[in-house]
Specification:
mainly alpha, two-stranded parallel ribbon, 9 helices, 2 strands, 6% strand
């Protein structure tokens, strides 16, 4: 997947691939949530193209470094358990969409399990959503975030 994002391709090919990896098809095809574009997919394309025009903020080197970080990191079950011990399982939430093209649903399940879903880690699976839940389900995402902040503020 990472190599597909770094190989030089036309912007249309890159955008179509990225949209399929990040979002559910139903969200992409739906009318733009803000009414400025025909569809949500068109809004995302405009945002991505604007980002690419920022030559100081969006560099090829930065994109490659992000792809390496995302694609080649690994945490063993022991490392995840140790992390959860240090942070506190009540402070950890795994939020995952079922049609995420970047991180598969089984990987989200594994992450929740290894962090300690049975011991306080919160797992929320959003049916039909992709990788960018805060775009697809903005209101739901804000509520989930507010609830988690409220929960964590109440911990010692």
């Amino acid at each position: 997947m990472c190599t597909k994002l770094t190989i030089l391709r036309s912007p249309d090919v890159q955008l179509n691939y990225l949209k399929r990896q990040l979002f559910s098809q139903s969200w992409l095809e739906a009318p733009d949530d803000y009414g400025d574009f025909p569809t949500n997919g068109d809004r995302f394309a405009a945002m991505d193209l604007a980002k690419r025009q920022d030559v100081e903020g969006f560099t090829r080197k930065g994109m490659i470094c992000q792809a390496i970080a995302a694609g080649w990191h690994h945490k063993s079950p022991e490392q995840l358990s140790e992390l959860a011990d240090k942070v506190g399982r009540q402070r950890i939430q795994v939020l995952h969409g079922t049609v995420d093209g970047m991180i598969s649903a089984p990987h989200g399940e594994m992450l929740a399990r290894e962090l300690g879903e049975d011991n306080g880690v919160t797992k929320i699976v959003v049916e039909g959503c992709g990788h960018v839940l805060h775009f697809e389900k903005t209101g739901m995402y804000h509520k989930i975030l507010e609830d988690m902040v409220e929960k964590v503020e109440g911990l010692e």
